[in-house]
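Severity: low
Component: inverse-folding endpoint
Summary: output formatting inconsistent between runs
Steps to reproduce: submit the following structure tokens with default settings.
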């Protein structure tokens, strides 16, 4: 049984408000989470941000015009399609309006369709999420309040504006919600109900741990947790109850837009404690973190440079997390191995030694190290076969394969 991956497509309608530039960050975060974003702009929105910016960030042309451009407008970076409002409304799973201006909200509430964005919204039958942004008095105006209430009564979902500094140099209510909060809400709405992963508890570990040898310095590795985040996103969108344990090398802003719980740890020991605490009742453990195999002793304070010419750090083995868990808890355990040579043999040995359901084998190509990159050279090995042979792969594509594998392992009868 495969998780349907088609149609993870969001239509982002950008309106003509000062916060239009923040929609760029919304696009960036959604694309990172594996979502296809198609941007629509009101003609007024193009006075704030160029369609070209959104085209570059989303990878798709930006639709603005409902009517063909006049000769004097030829050469604009937006594209023209006479049926764009219908095509786009069929294509997408969700319509997001961010920022939503007072004007567009009023027109939407009244069913007015005098631009491409509004026509598309009227033709759209899926979930609509809107994030208002405007001056605090516009926001508090009874007309705006009524329009927002009307839209919510019709099932549209509001990502409420926030208190804070506004463009008018005033402070008040009406500031666009943080892009990460908007993205969290969108991802939550995109989650699939009735998926074979619904209700399954999956723990994913990400990033490189830090092993301090004084209060300032530490030993770590180059992992950034990119593949683990892609997998956690994929599994969350497929309906699983995901939790992510993130080591320090996973950037804070990477975690902010995630809609599932994230737990921070520093060292291998802390990672072990957190995994153990969550192992009971867990369906899947996906260990993609680069956990330190060795740790130095930690000294208090800062080791002084002039104490000695050489510094001896006697490293001791850390406890292996997967091997230390009780047999069958959880039943599905997937690990990872990164090697520079004998990649297949070493991955196979690790799979057997740790009694894993599968292993993600990664080959370090010194010419193109995978850390923080979109692609890596990897394959998936199960006890029976190389499910995916070693090859250069996009991390989002690989994470989809891992999610399919997990679905099959959890639902063996349905294969
Ligand atoms: C500099 C500037 C900033 C604006 N910022 C906002 C805003 O943040 N929110 C809003 O609702 N309207 C704002 N407006 C007013 C809208 O641009 C105006 O209502 C316009 O008709 C909205 O068009 P649209 O909803 O079709 O994009 C702003 C106008 C200007 C000139």
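Observed output (run 2 of 3):
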């Amino acid at each position: 049984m495969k998780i349907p991956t088609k149609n993870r497509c969001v239509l982002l309608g950008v309106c003509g408000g000062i916060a239009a530039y923040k929609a760029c960050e919304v696009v960036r975060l959604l694309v990172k989470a594996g979502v296809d974003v198609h941007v629509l702009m009101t003609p007024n929105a193009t006075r704030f941000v160029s369609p070209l910016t959104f085209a570059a960030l989303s990878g798709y042309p930006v639709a603005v015009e409902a009517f063909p451009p006049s000769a004097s407008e030829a050469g604009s970076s937006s594209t023209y399609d006479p049926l764009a409002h219908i095509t786009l409304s069929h294509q997408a799973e969700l319509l997001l309006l961010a920022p939503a201006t007072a004007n567009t909200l009023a027109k939407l509430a009244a069913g007015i369709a005098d631009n491409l964005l509004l026509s598309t919204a009227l033709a759209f039958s899926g979930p609509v999420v809107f994030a208002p942004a405007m001056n605090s008095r516009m926001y508090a105006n009874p007309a705006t309040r009524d329009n927002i209430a009307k839209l919510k009564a019709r099932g549209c979902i509001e990502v409420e504006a926030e208190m804070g500094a506004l463009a008018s140099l005033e402070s008040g209510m009406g500031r666009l919600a943080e892009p990460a909060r908007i993205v969290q809400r969108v991802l939550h709405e995109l989650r699939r109900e009735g998926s074979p992963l619904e209700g399954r508890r999956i723990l994913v570990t990400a990033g490189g741990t830090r092993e301090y040898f004084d209060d300032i310095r530490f030993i770590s590795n180059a992992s950034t947790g990119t593949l683990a985040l892609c997998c956690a996103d994929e599994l969350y969108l497929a309906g699983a109850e995901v939790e992510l344990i993130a080591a320090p090398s996973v950037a804070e802003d990477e975690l902010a837009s995630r809609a599932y719980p994230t737990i921070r740890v520093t060292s291998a020991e802390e990672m072990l404690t957190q995994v153990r605490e969550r192992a009971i009742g867990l369906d899947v453990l996906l260990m993609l973190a680069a956990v330190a195999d060795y740790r130095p002793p930690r000294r208090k304070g800062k080791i002084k440079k002039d104490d000695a010419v050489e510094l001896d750090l006697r490293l001791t083995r850390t406890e292996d997390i997967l091997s230390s868990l009780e047999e069958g808890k959880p039943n599905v355990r997937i690990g990872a191995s990164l090697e520079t040579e004998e990649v297949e043999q070493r991955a196979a040995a690790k799979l057997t030694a740790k009694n894993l359901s599968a292993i993600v084998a990664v080959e370090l190509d010194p010419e193109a190290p995978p850390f923080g990159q979109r692609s890596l050279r990897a394959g998936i090995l199960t006890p029976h076969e190389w499910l995916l042979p070693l090859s250069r792969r996009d991390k989002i594509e690989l994470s989809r394969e891992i999610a399919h594998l997990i679905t099959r392992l959890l639902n063996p009868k349905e294969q």
